[in-house]
Amino acid sequence: MKFKFTQNISCTESNKCSDNLFEKLKVLLNTDDQKTFHFSISHEAGNHKIWVFLYDKNGKHEGEVSGKTVINNNSEIKKFTGKIPTLSQLKSKLV
Predict the structure, then answer these.
(1) What is the pTM of this model?
(2) CA dihedral (81, 86, 91, 95) positive or negative
């Protein structure tokens, strides 16, 4: 499952920004098992683009390339079994 949205965030250090948002995401998802999800950020001042992927199936990695969803086989991937947040919840927590 893919969530894609923009946030009005300004940062000076992309690594610190990513770490901060990742910690907030782990709390919201109630897991730090990176085999069940991943996220990406495009750090544009005031207009961060954020992608959150919660894996729907074991062995299937979901991503995005050039605006298109891409699914690849990966035996390490596990289905996300936690409570799936709403887009509103993601936006309110990832600021």
Answers:
(1) 0.92
(2) negative
End-to-end CA distance of the chain: 21
As given in the structure block, the two tokens for residue 31 are: 């897991």
Residue 29 in tokens:
């998802």
Pull the structure tokens for residue 52.
């959150």
Q: How would you list the strands of the sheet with 48-54, edge to edge?
A: 2-7, 48-54, 37-42
Phi, psi of 60 (to 5 degrees): -120, 110
Cα maximum dimension of the chain: 37
CA 58 – CA 77 distance, rounded (Å):
6
Radius of gyration of the chain (CA): 13
| pLDDT tens, residue by residue, 38-68 | 999 999 988 999 999 999 999 999 999 999 9
